[in-house]
Structure formats: C-alpha cells, structure tokens
Amino acid sequence: MEAIIAIAIGLLTACGVFLLLRARTFPLILGLTLLSYAVNLFLFASGRLRMDAPPLIRDGASYTDPLPQALVLTAIVIGFGMTAYLVMLALRALSESGDDHVDAKEKP
Amino acid sequence: MHTALPALVALAFCAAPLPLLLQRYGRGYAALASALVMASCLALLAPLVMPVMGGATLLTSFAWLPEWGLTLSLRLDGLGLMFSLLILGIGLLVTLYAYYYLDRHDKLGRFYTLLLLFMAAMLGVVLSENLLLLVVFWELTSLASFLLISYKQESYESRLSGRIALTVTGGGGLALFAGVLLLGHITGSYELSVVLAAGEQIRAHALYAPMLILVLLGVFTKSAQFPFHFWLPMAMAAPTPVSAYLHSATMVKAGVFLLARLYPALAGSELWFWLVSGTGAITLLYAAYLAFYRYDFKGLLAYSTISHLGLITLLFGLDTPLSVVAAVFHIINHAIFKASLFMAAGIVDHECGTRDMRRVNGLFKFMPITATLAIVAAGSMAGVPLLNGFLSKEMFFAETVGHPVFDEMSWLLPAFATLAGILAVAYSSRFIHDVFFNGDPVNLPRKPHEPPRWMRAPVEVLVAMCLLVGIFPQWSIAPILHAAAGAVLQQPLPDFHLAVWHGFNAPFMMSLLALAGGIALYAMRHRLYALYDRLPSIHASIVFERAHEKLVAAARSLLARLDNGSLQRYLALFIAFVLALGGWAWWTASAAVLPVVTQAPDAASLIALGMLAVAATGVVRLHHQRLIAVVLTSVIGLIVALTFVRFSAPDLALTQLSVEVVTIVLMLLALYYLPPTTPAEDSMPRLVRDALLALAAGIGLGAAAYAMLTSPFDTLSGYYLTQSLPGGGGSNVVNVILVDFRGFDTLGEITVLAMVGLAAHALLDQLVLKQPMRDGDGRAWASERHPLFLQMLMRPLLPLALMVSVYIFLRGHNLPGGGFVAGLVTGVALILQYLASGIGFASARLPQRLPLFLAAGLACAGGVGVAAWAFGFPFLTSTHGHVTLPLIGDIELASAMVFDLGVYLVVVSVVLMVLAELGKLSVNPEGAR
C-alpha cells in the first residue's frame, strides 16, 4: 500500500513539474494543480496510512493522526486560492500582452 | 552630561533644511539662515571653550543600541574644539562668500542646505566619542560632498566628478567601517576613551595589521593620498565656495583628523611608520610635482592641497611627539591659507571667466587688493617667513633632521623635505607670477575688476589670520594648539616654543634653500614644461573611469546572461537547484537500515493507481487540448478525494471534493477566454530537459514518500486526541484543531484567502477581453445561452443546497464538516445559479457588496480572538457549552463556532468574488453570456 501511494505521489510530481515548465499559462496552472495534489498527498501520508480510523472521538475507537489532516485541509483551501489567483493573473496577462506565453511582454 | 554637545549636533542637522524653506523669500534669506545656524552653533560652543582649553574632555552619552556597542556618545576635547572652530568659522566665511560667488539666478536654498548638512556631518565626525557613530557621520560627509561637488547637476563633468569622489571616499568609508569593527573587536569597546587607552593591547594583537590597513584606507581615500588622490583635482568641478570649504579646511581634513584622533591607539609601530610616512612622503612630492605643471590655477591649488595633506600625513607617520604637534599646527595653517587662496582664485575665475593661466595674466593692474591678498596667502603656502605656513614648515624641517629611524642615511629625510619645499615654492611662484604679473591678459571673455566689497571680506579675514599667526604665534595660536596637540597625544606635551626666529639653524637653512631653489626652478620653467609635455601622462582618473566602465559592462553582460527575463527559464533553474539540494541531502544522509513495515496492497488501490496513472499521463500527453486536460485533471482530483476517504480522512475528502468543483468551474471559465489549445512550440532539447527534470523530481519525491512511509512513526497528536473533547468541546479532532488549537494558523490562512478575493477585484475589474465567437474547432457557441431545463432545475435546488451547507456547518465541530466545507458548498450552490440563469439574473439577487461579507468574516474570526482578551485570556482562547434546542436536539455551542462562521463567510465571499469577477468579463453588450 505504501508503495502505491509513493508511486502516485511520484507520478503526480513528475507530471506536475513537466507541465509547470511549459511556456503557456494554462498548462502551468494544470501543472501547479497536479503538484498540489502530490504535495497534499505527501503531507497527508506523513500521518501514515490507516483505514477505518477517522479522528472522530467516540467510545473504544482508535484514531489516525489528525494533525496532518488539519494541515492538509488548510493546504487544499490555500491551493484553491493560489489556483484562483493564477487563473486571474493569466487572464490579466492575456489582456496586457495579447498572448498567453509566460514570458510575453506588455503590449506597446 | 553636557547637553550643549548633542544640542549642537542636533541643531546643525535639524536646521539644515531652513535655507530651502526660506529661499522663496529671496536668496539673501537662505544665506542668512545658513549664517545664523552656524553662528548659533558657535554660540553653543562658546561656553565650552574655556574648560576644554584648560585640558578637560567633555563626554556625553545616550544608550542607542547598547547591545551592539552603538551609543550616541559625543566628546569635546582640544582636537575636537580646534576642528569645530575651523568648521564653523570657515563655514561662516564661505556662507558670505558663496552669496556673491554663485549665480544671481540661483535661489541658493539647495546650496546652503547641502552646505549645512555637510557641516553637521563634519561636526559629527569631529565630536563623536563612539567610533561607530563616527563612521556614520563619516559616510554622511561623503554623501553631502557628493551632492555639493555635483551641484551643477546639468553638467556631465560635475556629475562624473561627484560620482568618482563618492566612489573613492565612500569605498574608503566601508574599509574604515571594517577597520573600526576590528578595532572594537580587539578592545571590546567602540568608545574612544577605552580605545585610546588600549594602545599597547591593540599593537600586540594579531589583527593589528589588517585593522590598521583598513583604517588607513579610509584615511587615505578621504585625505586624497596617493594613489587615491585623483578624486580631489576632479572635484574642482564643484563651485569654488565648496572647494574652499570642503577641499581645504574640512572634508579632506577628516582623514588626517582620524590619524590624529586614533594616534595614541594606532601609532607607535614600525608598520605605522612605514605605511603612514611612506604614503605621506610620496603624496607630498608627487602632488607638488604635478601642481607645478597645471595650467588651471584651481587645479594647481588642488594638487597643492594634496601635497600639503601628504605633508601632514608624513608628519603623523614620523611618529615623534613634536612631529605630531607640527602636524596639528599645519592642519590649522593649511586650512587658513588654502581657504583664502581658493576664495581668491574663485574671485579671479569669477571676474575673468576662465582659469587658464596661459590667458589669465597681469591681473595686478586690474585688482590690486585681491592680488595682494592672494600673494600673501600664496607666500604662506610657499613657506615665506612672517607667515603662518613658514612656522609649521620649519617645524617639519626640524623634525626631518636627525629622525631616529634613518641613522645611517640621516641626510635623506632632510634632503627630501627640502626638495618638497623647493617644489612648493616653485608652484606658489607660478601661481603668483602667472596670474598677477607676466604681461597682459590674453583674450579674456570680460574685463576683470575688483569684486564686491563683501565678497573679498572673507579673504581679508583669513589673510589677516595668516599674518597674525605668522608674526605673533605665541600670542595667537599657541593656546588652541596646545589643547589640540595635547588631546592628540594623550600625554604631556613636549617642550616647544613657537617663534619666528630660532637662529641660523638647519631648518632655517633648509627654508632659505627651498625659497632660492623654488625661484630658480620657476625661472627655468619653459624648459621643464617642454620636458613634461614629452613625458607620457597617466591620469589616475582616466584609469579609474576605464576600470569603472569595464566593471559596469562586465556586470551588465553577466546580468544579461543570468537574467534574460524568461520566467520559464528561471523556473527550470529553480527546480534544478532544488533537485540538486535534495540530491545532496540524500547523498550525504547516513544510511540506517530500518525494519520496513508495509501493508499489502489491495485490488481497489491498484485500480485507483492505474486510473490515476492514465489520467495524469493523459493530462501531460493531451495538454495541448486544454478542455480534455481539465476533464482529466478533475478525474485525478476525484481519485485523490477517494484516497482521503479510504485512509480515514472524511474532512479532507469533503473539502477536496467541493474545492474540485469550484476549481474546475474556474478553469472552464478561464478557458472561455484563453486560447483553447496550446501550440506545439517546444524544441526537442527543451522537452528532453524538462522531462528529465520532471522525472528526477518525481522519483525524488516518490522515494522520499516511500522512505517516510516505511520508517517508524511517532506523533505529537496524542495531545490533540485526548484534549479535543474536554478542551475544545468537539469530537471532530481535525475541526477542533483548525478552529481552536491552531486557530491562529487558520486566521492567517483565511486572511490569505481574503487577499485572493480582493486580488480578483484588483486584477479583473474593468478588464476587457476579446470575446471568442467560436470554439477551438471553429464551431460557433450555442445561441441558446441558458437552457430552460437547467434554469428550472437549479432554482429549487438552491434552498436545498443552502440547507445542506448549514447542516454541514453546524455539525462540523463533532462530525466531518465545518466552515471550510460549508462555505464551499454554499459557493457551489450559488455558482450553479450563475451558470444556469446567467450573470444578470444572479447578480441582481445576490448581495452586491461582497467585500463587506469578506470583512465581516475576518472580523468574526479575529473578534473571537480579541474577545478572549476581554476575559483575561490569551488571543483566540475558546470556550464552549451545550445547549438543547427543541427539534434539533443537543447542540454544542463553542466560541470556536463563531470563528468557524468567520471562516465560512470568508470562503463564500472569496469564491463568489472570484467567480463573479470572472463571469463579469463575459458580459457583452447584449448583456448575456
């Protein structure tokens, strides 16, 4: 099971990084999204993989580590904020330069 | 504590802008303000004169940054007093002189403000007790002099000269700073009183040599010693009052002032002797030689200044008590006669319109009074008896005779001194004879005549002082000289007697020889000029400027290669760097083999991994077709959410799922404007490079994840699990952590989120984007913009969805849910209305002022935190209790819920602000999407 998660993380990272290095804004946003997935999974995995042990206090239950979950929850929301910001930035850049290339210069 | 000292420095700095403020009433007011400030400083100083002359050292100190050894401490002793009187006295004369010298159309506010600023910094240098403070003032004098030298901002030459002066003296200041830090390290204090008493300890320290060299670099650059002398002749581009003030009496004297100030601490070693006297001797002779060949009489004076500074440096280097007295004496004498010479030269320049001695001749006929004054001052410069320059020069000659270091070659030093004297007489003769006699003026732009009465007055005062000191030294100058030299030596003064006539001794013979030799040298000047013209000339300033240009060009080309403006490239470099760091850490880590504990994979997980692999590679493979890539990305998001479900993280799954929906809608909206496809434009090498980087990153992070997952596990979460219910009043530990235990993190996070919402407004408001009429395949968009079916279905769905979100919100503290998820669900429900019925419909029914809700949310969350203060608890302390409501049942009411409400409001408003701004872009003139 651990290997599966590790492979998933590696795969998402590789795809994310490759897309991050593209020259256009939209693949870059996709790449960042994939990389966020990978990082979130990584953070989540630092609490180890336990099934049927949600951190909801009830009698006689055992719990998985809640702290990474709390961290990842904020990470997901911040990730959304970042994606939203990038999307808006991409649109703004498109309007300023007339092109969606990341190195596009402002229109004269 | 003497409050007069800090008041003096503070007054000088605070009053500096006065001339600038007063100039609109007339240029006279600016000059008056400057004069009044200087006079007030003198008045503040006056009551302190008597005690200091009596040998007292006045200290005053305020703690500033005591832990760094920086105190605001000032000191007034004989040396400081002598310099302060020079700075203020000559400052007053220069103020008067500049009023007449500078152009009538110049408002003068800027000039006098800069002059006062410089004066204040200079006073700071000579009155500092703390060495770090001294360095600060030292650099301020460099800055002020830069502004004064380049006063004529429209002239390239002025700006260049100012820049070179700043580079040299400012750079020297940095070396001095380093030297002072070393000095503080050696003695353990930056206070002069401590440092001056620690001479033995300093000279014995291993760091003495580097420290001395660094301090001397500061001194030599400031006092224009060889090979840093070139900035001073260039600085003659400054207006003459600036030259008279900075380049005779004050700024360039700061270097030798520091030699005097630190003399007891630094001198007394062989290194000091050779470095200081060697540099001084070379400068003395070389600059005197160059001065003789100038055509520009101001340039002649500049080189002569360098030469005299070399003389003073040499005297300090000779390192005997009497040579130090002579050095201090010559500082005063040189300031007096050189300031008057500069002012006289300025008058000539002002009246003739040129400074070329091949054209400016025979002025005695036109301005006999000015000529007489200048001749007397130049005589002092040459060392003619009955003038003040003669006295200190004789002391110099006396010190060179029989100096202990040269016992075998005892003739060498006196011979050298006599040669320097001959050259000084030669260039002084040239100044006198060429300018005031030697035939008639050649082709002058205007007919010269005597200057206004008050323009000449400062020169008259200074020349009178030359005579006074020269004839009655014991009566006029001896007291202050005793006080100053005593403060320099920090020990009882040697016995010396100031008098014009000491008998026919060796120094007097040397003086006579210098006078005769100098006049003889001047007599054969034409042959010497011819010889000089055939010698190759090296101008240090040109060498410096070339080196400077090369440095700038090299830096530019390096920058152009590193910083080519391509974000794509920066990102690749950044990733490669991070990979290298990771690889290095991996490589150097100790390889401890631990027992590996793993769980067996099951079929469902394998299938999920397979789907993930297909989707992720699909995104990469098909990213040119953007719509398909978005759809595949959403598949990945779903699989990630399922992973959270499987591994006991229901909150994460809910959040991921709702974020996914919002994100996908966002991307689809963006795709409406962005090009629908990505062009295949990457070259093969770049693709290979990126693939390698991506592969390395993937393998790295995957391996790190595997290593982490299979290593033993220890967590600090036990605290949260046991305290969640009793401490936070909720059984959903994740939510309790978010809104209670680590509420401060969450507060920060929603603040970031709020900024994204505001950024939406900032980035997209009023933005106009071209509306594509067709999709990527050339098909026209559907004319039926809002399908009736969707509209009808969505409207009743809204209250249902809102109810769900309230439910999720309320149960969040105990069961999966909470403000984040509830906010996202609400956001999705409202977005659906936008999608189904159009922006016009939805906007009309939704609150217009979303930022208000955003602020309310932040206020809720922050308010809960602040409220805790009211009850005497730390920020964000929470409380809770149970309430039973009819129908709904037992409800946990915690103050953390108000916090969660804040989170909810922020999330909803941010989601709506972003999507509404994006939606607004598409409102075309017909008002429909």
Write up this protein.
The complex is a heterodimer of chains A (108) and B (929). Chain A is mostly helical. Chain A has a single domain (2-50, 64-97), classed as Helix Hairpins (Orthogonal Bundle), CATH 1.10.287. In chain A, 67% of the residues lie in helices and 0% in strands. Chain A is built from three helices and no strands. Chain B has a two-stranded antiparallel ribbon. A two-stranded antiparallel ribbon of chain B has the order 3-4. In chain B, a hairpin with a 4-residue loop joins strand 1 and strand 2 (70-76). In chain B, helix 17 (321-352) packs antiparallel against helix 21 (453-471), helix 19 (388-400) packs antiparallel against helix 20 (412-436) and helix 33 (733-741) crosses helix 34. The longest helix of chain B has 32 residues, at 156-187. The interface between A and B is large, with 82 and 112 residues.
Secondary-structure blueprint:
The complex is a heterodimer of chains A (108) and B (929).
Chain A: H1 2-20, H2 25-45, H3 66-97
Helix pairs in contact in A: 1-2, 2-3
Chain B: H1 4-14, H2 18-22, H3 27-53, E1 58-65, E2 70-76, H4 78-101, H5 109-127, H6 131-149, H7 156-187, H8 192-196, H9 199-204, H10 208-222, H11 231-234, H12 240-249, H13 253-261, H14 263-266, H15 270-292, H16 297-318, H17 321-352, H18 368-382, H19 388-400, H20 412-436, H21 453-471, H22 473-476, H23 478-489, H24 506-523, H25 525-534, H26 540-562, H27 567-588, H28 603-621, H29 626-646, H30 650-673, H31 684-709, H32 718-728, H33 733-741, H34 743-764, H35 788-811, H36 819-837, H37 839-845, H38 850-870, E3 880-885, E4 889-894, H39 895-921
Antiparallel strand pairs in B: 1-2, 3-4
